[in-house]
């Protein structure tokens, strides 16, 4: 049974479970994505990110629960006509040119962009007549993105779209993804690059062991982040720092110590008093990285 | 309705074009599959013939040999490769239909098989002085082109069941053993009795017997027996291909 809210929603999951033998890849996962924008699914390998996408596409069947993609059963042709995809580790035929690939893929859809429009939007003009085989990693990924958007879909799944790319290629792809999100598309991407989620996403979903353990936004993470992160090199032992005023936690990061403090002024005053030779001192607001580490630790402590 | 028909036809047209381009741009596929049959035929029918009956006899069997390459290699290796690379999965989540992909590959294979057969016919007609009536040429061509289908099913099964590396090995083994043991190169009459009986399990033997009977060159036994066996074999292959297809979808 579909309720009316399901029909306007782009992806709805209610108590979805997916297991492979004894492994629980998705565990009672619920999610509702209605609006346009970029949604980043963040998590370590094995957290269930790819399984979630494969189930939403109908590539894998869910074990229990309810799920609709664009108001239809996942894998239904009605949903497929309005969906675009980059699958993980998926390659295109080596011997076809960029133009040929796009023209063929566009023919699968009812209201596609024209080939020239897509070449322009995805900035493929420099190599449109080259065969896929001869392209660089970044260029290949942009062609894959072009195939994901050529059908003018409402919902776009990108499974690790920038893995293995250098920072320039990654930023070029971010810009193109952002443009499509601004035009009313819903883009769901998985990544394990925190800065990708921070720079690109409107909403960040953190997955762990088949569940969404945090549903937040980059702005919220910055606003709600309490206290500060103090980094330094010191000869003081970790145990004596833990007892300084304001200190919540201490961890080692290479040569440095990372101190989380809820009262940075008090902590710093004592720190410098006890170790006048302290060096490489920085104080910053917690980043997504700290937030992510905190979630990982608190969950595994349970 | 009309609109959707046009869209489907256009998509099939582009899909077929893509298949033909992919094959033409892969010389390691095109040279052996197109040149080997005509080179062997030229050698054994015109340069070192065993007797006056060699050229028409080998025309019937080499025609089967000529269509087997594009079908087994074109389907086996290319489907395995495209499945390994995730291209088939991407097609599956797109609105493309599996039928259009397979039909485009069948069309492209038929085109290559026709080239391969035509080159042998040209050598037979002009260099080896094979003279058949028009009706005989036409029925021989029909038999040879029909022979593509059982081998397409074999190629498809390989493509669905093997990874890209295994597909190369399995395709080669089947291609060579079907050719040699099915009597495409040397008539099975010269084989020991056990090998002669084994040939009855191979589609190549029955297809070449039908081709020989049609060209009135030789033909062992009743043609309806060979037609029946090849019909049953094709049906069984279709069934096993369907099973292989559903197996790879659910894995």
How is this structure best described in words?
The complex is a heterodimer of chains A (302) and B (251). With 302 residues, chain A is α/β, with parallel strands linked by helices. Chain A has helices spanning 4-8, 49-57, 77-80, 98-106, 115-121, 137-149, 167-182, 194-200, 218-224, 238-242, 264-274, 288-301, and strands spanning 11-20, 23-33, 37-42, 64-69, 83-86, 155-159, 186-191, 203-208, 211-216, 228-233, 247-253, 256-261, 279-284. In chain A, strands 5-6-7-3-8-9 form a six-stranded mixed sheet, with helices on both faces. Chain A is globular and about 70 Å long. Chain B has helices at 2-24, 27-47, 54-84, 87-93, 98-127, 134-146, 148-161, 164-181, 193-199, 203-214, 223-250. The mean pLDDT of chain B is 91. The radius of gyration of chain B is 19 Å and the shape is globular. Chain B has one domain. Chain B is an all-alpha fold and 251 residues long. Chain B has eleven helices and no strands. Chain A binds chain B through residues 57-59, 75, 77, 80-81, 83, 85, 87-93, 95-96, 100, 103-105, 107-110, 131, 147, 151, and chain B through 7, 10-11, 14-15, 17-18, 21-22, 25-26, 82, 85-87, 89-90, 92-96.
Tell how many strands the DSSP assignment of chain B holds: 0
**Gyration radius from CA atoms of chain B, angstroms:** 19 Å
End-to-end C-alpha gap of chain A: 36 Å
- The share of residues in extended strands of chain A comes to 25-35%
The number of domains of chain B? 1
Q: Termini of chain B, distance in Å?
A: 35 Å
State the low-pLDDT regions of chain A, or none: 1-6
Q: What's the helix-strand series of chain B?
A: HHHHHHHHHHH
Helical residues, percent of chain A:
25-40%
Spatial order of the strands in the main sheet of chain A? 5-6-7-3-8-9
What order do the helices and strands of chain A follow?
HEEEHEHEHHHEHEHEEHEHEEHEH
> Major sheet of chain A: size, sense and barrel closure?
6 strands, mixed
The general outline of chain A is globular
